[in-house]
Each structure stands twice: as structure tokens, then as C-alpha cells.
Amino acid sequence: LWLDLDVVTAYFSDSTKKTVDADKLMHSGYTAFGHLEDGTIYVCGRSDEEGTVDGFAGNVIYLIGDVFEQSFEARWNANKNNDQKLEWTDIDGDGEDELVLIADIASGTGVNMEELSVFEPKPDGSFEHHYLSFEKMEELLNEHLTAKVGEENITLTLTENGSRTSENCTEFAGPGIDMINRYTLEDGKCSVCFTTLLHKEGGKYVYENPYLAWLRGTYDPFEGTVDDEDYITAARHIIADVVYDGEDFALENLGFNK
Asked: What are 36-94's pLDDT values in tens digits?
């Protein structure tokens, strides 16, 4: 989903180089948290947006160039990292580069949570936004991951194209299970490593992003046993390739990261 394009003057640019002046952005209420290496596009939040937390985190991001500004619905957090990954790369293999953002939403001891945005350039100079949020990742993983809870362990099973891979997990909870959702982008190829957190829904267990569960106040990573009615954590991380086809995302080559 991309919102209306707002064309602005070149107020934020260095007119000699067509690069964005980060100081002018800051003094105009923007918080920059990433930019292209050549400085021609910055990605920012605004400290005065509704829902912004302490001026460093919010739910609306802005792409700003020398003569344009466009806003999108996506999470951002500049408190930990003001130089987050923004680059042109051909992530869908169509021969044309897209603008790709890996946004660090939360990081710290045992926490590294990221979200992925792909911005498709349009003929009118605007961008179309495709967003792999935490919620979307939950949906994608639940297409592949199932769990069977036994008396002494949990058996996690990944299914892909009829092939099944299983892992027995005997560690159900504890501080060793980190909140991870971390992307790698190299030569247009994107992969992800993330934590498995199981949530009981009816008679089965489904994956839920641990950071979202923590924000909702429904998950404490230092508590929980196999007998809990709600959350069970399995001490495994999962790795996968992230495939983007120009419109949507999918997971391929899933496996357990030991």
C-alpha cells in the first residue's frame, strides 16, 4: 500500500549535488534512520506523527529525495541505529532495480527484530510499497510450520513442496531463546532468520512473532513450560529464503538453524 505522493520543493537538497541535507530534515521535524550511500534518498520518521514514541519510533515512514516526499505505512525505530540498510537492488529478478529497506525495529540484548520493505519505482516518479511486516511473516510461516507437543518435548515440522523436516525441542522456555527476525540481502538475494514461538490456538499450535507477543503483554521469555495453556517457546531458530515476485512475498528453502 502506498499513500498519496506529496511533491515538495528542493528545500531539503544540496542543489549542487542533488543530495538530501540531513540537517535540514532534522530541523523540519524528521528523524532520519537510513539513506542511500550517495545521499540522494533518505528514509525518515516524523517526531510529531500520531503514535510516535519519544520521537524515535512510529508507524509512518517517509522517503525523501531532492524534490519529492512520499509517506507509507510501516514501522520505524531510530533509537538504536541511524544508518539502516537502504539500497537499490533487483530483488525480484526482473532486470530492474527496486529500492529495498531493512528496518531495525528493535535491537538490544537478545533482541534483533527487522522488517522488510520493497519500493517499486513508478513512471510518475512515485513508489509503490510492498511490506513484509511481522504479521505477514506469521502468516507465511504458518503455511509451513506445525508442532506436536509430547510429554517431554515438542516436535516442530517444516513442510515445503511435500518435503518434511522435523526437529525435537526439549528446551521449552528460558532466557536463551532470543527475539530474532533478521534479514540478509546480498546481490538481490534475501534471506531471513527468525525465532519460533508457538501460540496455542484452539487445538493446535501456530507461530507468532515473539516481539509482537511481548508488546501485547502476552509473552514473557523468562517464563513458560510445556504445560502452559497459551505460549510455548521452542529453542530453535528457522532460516529461509525470502522470495519477492513484484507483488507479494513467499518463503522457500526453510530449515532449522542449529
From this structure: 998 889 999 887 777 666 666 888 999 998 778 899 999 988 875 567 899 999 999 99
Cell for 225?
Answer: 513450560
DSSP state of 202: T
Residues 103 and 34 sit within 8 Å (Cβ to Cβ): yes
Residue 183 and residue 117: Cα distance in Å, rounded? 11
CA distance 167 to 165: 7
Residues 68, 71, 76, 79, CA torsion sign:
positive
Longest dimension (CA), the chain: 69
Q: What angle do CA 118, 124, 129 make, to 5 degrees?
A: 20
Instruction: Quote the CA–CA distance of 70 and 36 in Å, as a whole number.
Output: 16
Model pTM score: 0.86
What is the C-alpha to C-alpha distance for residues 230 and 225, in angstroms, rounded to an integer? 10
- Mind giving me the DSSP string for 85-142? EEEEE-SSSSSS-EEEEEEEEEEETTEEEEEEEEEEE-TTS-EEEEEE-HHHHHHHHH
Q: Which of 244, 239, 256, 65 is nearest to 147 (CA)?
A: 256
Please, what is the Cα angle at 74 between 68 and 75, to 5 degrees? 120
List, in order, residues 6 or more apart from 112 with CB less than 8 Å away.
104, 106, 178, 179, 180, 181, 182
Listed range (20-24, 37-41, 163-167, 225-229) with the worst mean pLDDT: 225-229
